[in-house]
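Bench log, entry 3. Co-assembly request; chain sequences pasted below exactly as received.
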Amino acid sequence: MGKSQRTFVKAFAPATVANVGCGFDVLGFAIHGPGDSVSATLSDKAGVRIVSITGEDGKLPYETEKNTAGLSVLSLLKKAGKEHIGIELRIEKKMPLGSGLGSSAASSAAAVAAVNHLLGEPFSQMELLPFAVEGELAASGTPHADNVAAALLGGFVLVKEHNPPDVIPLPSPPELYCVVIHPHIEIQTRRSRQILKKEVLLEKAIRQWANMGALVAGLFREDYSLIGRSLHDEIIEPVRSVMIPGFQGMKKGAMEAGALGCSISGSGPSLFALTRGESDAHRAGEKMGDVLKEIGLEFDLHLSEINRKGAVIEEER
Amino acid sequence: MGKSQRTFVKAFAPATVANVGCGFDVLGFAIHGPGDSVSATLSDKAGVRIVSITGEDGKLPYETEKNTAGLSVLSLLKKAGKEHIGIELRIEKKMPLGSGLGSSAASSAAAVAAVNHLLGEPFSQMELLPFAVEGELAASGTPHADNVAAALLGGFVLVKEHNPPDVIPLPSPPELYCVVIHPHIEIQTRRSRQILKKEVLLEKAIRQWANMGALVAGLFREDYSLIGRSLHDEIIEPVRSVMIPGFQGMKKGAMEAGALGCSISGSGPSLFALTRGESDAHRAGEKMGDVLKEIGLEFDLHLSEINRKGAVIEEER
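Structure output for the full assembly:
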């Protein structure tokens, strides 16, 4: 591949649902709608600089080494042997932080996608993963690839190993719809990890890996009934759901509306529900929203197909 | 379907490997070679009688209500509304008891397959499962469907629920070969269950369900490398393998010979290894046998493709 003539690339990466039911820590998927855009501009001055961040009320650091997008790009440039070049990053947050929808992952994925395209695509989308994981590591303290893999690759992804990542893209059945509801409350990721017990009952773990195998089979077979029968989490959800007001009511409402399954997105407070077809998704979303309205909590509601594209180039010149 | 004119049917069901790596309690597959034959003969005298059992040194009960094959047939006849008919069962054990290769499951599966055919096949192979599970329940005290599902259906099977069974047949990649080695020692299934801890570390359970999902994906994709990367069991194998003399040496030998994975079959003492292609299977089997020869243990060695047929009719008139 010859030298790229581009001087400006803007990429978008979507919001993602991680910890999908029985797939705690290992299964994620991407949705349409919310996400982040990151633009990369070549500069004569060596080094990676973050020159603007919008849409986040000043909560994210401008120092490249402390910013997940910045760190991801540094990691990419190092591997590409391009540490000498100059890049300006502009980050547009188009989704809320701390929602359980992979906000930092979307920035990291968009940043590496933009810079990779700027350099003439020395890396495949899959090869970009380790760089984005390094950025995530800085954000959360532990390397987690489930959000970032879904944000980069789109569709359902199974993360067998986080660092270095061993990620298996899974099929996304065509009629699968997703509802995501984001109640406007804050949950600290660290706290939501602390309340988990270090040990689990073997019999529950067995049911979890049976469901995990069955869910993967359901995705391959496009067997919506099997997907529904497998979307259970008896280990994490019972512990974490108590931190989310209205959780039981929302889940009950979604299931009554015909959802295949419903659980916590990431470490919350967002919930996701998967449905077969758009109309069930609408009904499930409505039911979930009704519960939050009743307890007086504001929320965002997103309905979409599974996003099969992942990170995409929006603009270049 | 009209009334069957048959008066005699003999069926065969194969030996099976359960607890396949990360799929403890939920994943099994069938092999070629060892297995049991059961014949069913219509009789004028109402009731189910076991009239002969061969190949097991008198260890199995002739009382229908205490014999797994007998119980399975009683359960079938009850559901079919045929409790009034007379059936004589002849059981030919062609595989050792207590080997970890699903001996009682093979008898149950062959028995229900034979009687179902005798009756003109009122049930599909999948519909026969609950009957065979009832027989297994009597044998082991807990309902376990992994051996019996593989013995009936063939191929790889994922058992999402044991009783009533919810079983998902999985693809069996064409180049997959299996080595089973059965050291001639005895392990009590009950004891091998007792030594398991009731709780497991969450981080290990997470790796187990990541591997489980990845293994299922590997089977669907015919991705032998992914199958190999996923065939790990960090939870059960470390505890149970200490009961099997030479386990570590056999596993090391199999892996050095190119096996994709190697672990305990059922609750032991047999080991299985999966390979890509026949020649690796031969080399793995040789290496495993060498270890047992060195410590002076006799053994049986079986090499085969995955058995995709399950229970089959051998003879009828």
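Residues 176-305 of chain A form a domain with the Alpha-Beta Plaits fold (CATH 3.30.70.890). The CA atoms of residues 181 and 301 of chain A lie 5 Å apart.
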